[in-house]
C-alpha cells in the first residue's frame, strides 16, 4: 500500500518501468498515486532521487554505484518480484551480432520468455 500511495519520480506513460510498476500494483488491487514528477530519462530520475526530490523505482543495475556509495537506499518490496519485458527491434534480417545477442538474452532471461 505504501508504494501505491507514494508520489514517485516516473517516466512517461507507456514506458517499460512505469508500465511494470503499474501492472504490479494493479495485480495487488492498487492504483499508482499521481507522480511527484514525470521525467524524460532514467538518468534524470536517478539524479532527482539522489537529490532527495522523491523516491523512484529503478533497475538495480542503473543505481548499483549509488547504492554502494550510500547515495541511494534500496527499499525491498513485499510480494512477487518486478519483472520487466524488453524488446529488441532491427531492420531486415538480424546480423550475426544481433543473433548472438538474442542467444545470450534467451539463455539468461527469467523464465526463458523470449519471443521471436
UniProtKB/TrEMBL annotation:
Gene Ontology molecular-function annotations: transcription cis-regulatory region binding
Species whose genome carries this gene: Curtobacterium citreum
Residue ranges of every copy of the LysR substrate-binding domain listed in the record: 2-107
A Gene Ontology BP annotation from the UniProt entry: regulation of DNA-templated transcription
Family: Belongs to the LysR transcriptional regulatory family.
Source superkingdom: Bacteria
Matches recorded under Pfam families: LysR_substrate (PF03466)
Record-given protein name: LysR family transcriptional regulator
Lineage, uppermost ranks: Bacteria, Bacillati, Actinomycetota, Actinomycetes, Micrococcales
InterPro entries: LysR_subst-bd
Keyword field: Transcription, Transcription regulation
Amino acid at each position: 500500500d505504501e508504494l501505491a500511495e507514494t508520489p514517485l519520480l516516473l517516466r512517461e506513460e507507456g514506458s517499460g518501468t512505469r508500465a511494470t510498476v503499474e501492472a504490479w500494483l494493479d495485480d495487488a488491487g492498487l492504483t499508482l498515486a499521481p507522480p511527484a514528477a514525470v521525467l524524460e530519462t532514467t538518468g534524470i530520475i536517478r539524479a532527482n532521487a539522489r537529490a532527495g526530490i522523491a523516491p523512484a523505482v529503478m533497475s538495480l543495475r542503473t543505481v548499483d554505484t549509488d547504492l554502494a556509495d550510500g547515495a541511494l537506499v534500496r527499499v525491498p518490496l513485499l510480494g512477487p518480484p518486478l519483472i520487466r519485458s524488453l524488446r529488441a527491434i532491427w531492420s531486415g534480417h538480424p546480423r550475426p551480432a544481433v543473433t548472438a545477442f538474442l542467444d545470450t538474452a534467451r539463455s539468461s532471461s527469467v523464465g526463458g520468455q523470449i519471443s521471436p
